[in-house]
Amino acid sequence: MTDSATEIFAALAHPTRRQILQDLKNGELAAGEIASKFNATGPTISRHLAVLRQAGLVTERRDANRILYSLVGERLALSVGDFLSTVCPERIVLREVRKRRGTTTPAAFEEAASA
């Protein structure tokens, strides 16, 4: 795995970080909002957010005295998808279908898988 993929999978290894990513799927949240969802100290959540940020899975922006975090979903999807396509035959077929047809429909996947 590349260093980038290693960082991403290391970031995903902790359940708190996975939950933070799930919480961010509906949009931007302030650091305090994120921390309030967990039975952990603020510094602990801050460290989890730093790991996610370093892996490129979240971004932060400052708004006055608040730090707002957002999910970088495409990075997560591409990294996990690339890994799955190397180990999962169905993903390999789907990747080939996308290359040939430029489509991601389930029907195209089923058609290619049955061929």
Automatic annotation (TrEMBL):
<feature type="domain" description="HTH arsR-type">
    <location>
        <begin position="1"/>
        <end position="91"/>
    </location>
</feature>
<dbReference type="InterPro" id="IPR051081">
    <property type="entry name" value="HTH_MetalResp_TranReg"/>
</dbReference>
<dbReference type="InterPro" id="IPR011991">
    <property type="entry name" value="ArsR-like_HTH"/>
</dbReference>
<dbReference type="GO" id="GO:0003677">
    <property type="term" value="F:DNA binding"/>
</dbReference>
<keyword id="KW-0238">DNA-binding</keyword>
<keyword id="KW-0804">Transcription</keyword>
<dbReference type="InterPro" id="IPR036390">
    <property type="entry name" value="WH_DNA-bd_sf"/>
</dbReference>
<dbReference type="Pfam" id="PF12840">
    <property type="entry name" value="HTH_20"/>
</dbReference>
<dbReference type="InterPro" id="IPR036388">
    <property type="entry name" value="WH-like_DNA-bd_sf"/>
</dbReference>
<dbReference type="InterPro" id="IPR001845">
    <property type="entry name" value="HTH_ArsR_DNA-bd_dom"/>
</dbReference>
<keyword id="KW-0805">Transcription regulation</keyword>
<protein>
    <submittedName>
        <fullName>Winged helix-turn-helix transcriptional regulator</fullName>
    </submittedName>
</protein>
<dbReference type="GO" id="GO:0003700">
    <property type="term" value="F:DNA-binding transcription factor activity"/>
</dbReference>
